[in-house]
Design a protein that fits this description.
Layout (H helix, E strand, L loop, with lengths): L3 E2 L17 E8 L8 H9 L4 H14 L7 H5 L6 E2 L2 E6 L3 E7 L3 E9 L4 E10 L2 H26 L1
Antiparallel strand pairs: 1-2, 2-7, 3-4, 4-5, 5-6, 6-7
Helix pairs in contact: 1-4
């Protein structure tokens, strides 16, 4: 299945984040036959059992960013508040869209996973940086972010 870059959906629950964001991107893939029809279940399938390179990148990120007082994935995973999909906190969920995200001292991010009326799965990311550390971090991870989102959507499409 082909993953395509698409315009960030204007009817997404995170559309209010687009203006003033330091990063907004969206990618889509057709929902494969037999895949869940609930956005939270799709997000769980999307993020389940990530490829080994993704785990290595997260470990590297945690080693570097912990020195700057940024929450590690382990800290996020074990936080006491609310439901999660992997280490991502679920901020809201409807059958058609789930919003994952976290606010930290360097940046805030939101990830929307939506199922559209034409059976597309759209993953939209919006990031707002608070300081130089956030902007440097975003610049460093952006190529990996794109690779990972596209890869996870392609895997879902198969």
């Amino acid at each position: 299945m082909t993953v395509t870059a698409v315009a960030p959906p204007r009817d997404s629950a995170i559309a209010g984040w687009y203006d003033g964001a330091d990063l907004v991107d969206a990618y889509a893939v057709r929902r494969p036959a037999g895949a869940p029809t609930d956005a939270a279940a799709i997000a769980a399938a999307l993020l389940a059992d990530p490829p080994p390179y993704f785990r290595v990148l997260l470990q590297l990120r945690d080693l570097i960013m912990a020195r700057f007082g940024v929450k590690t994935t382990s800290e996020l995973r074990h936080a006491a508040h609310g439901p999660r999909i992997d280490f991502f906190p679920v901020l809201s969920a409807t059958p058609g869209e789930v919003i994952l995200g976290e606010d930290d001292r360097h940046l805030d991010f939101r990830l929307s996973v939506r199922l559209t009326a034409d059976d597309m799965v759209v993953a939209t990311t919006a990031v707002r940086c608070h300081n130089r550390l956030g902007r440097a971090y975003l610049a460093a991870i952006k190529p990996f972010h794109i690779l990972i989102v596209r890869s996870l959507l392609a895997r879902l499409g198969r």
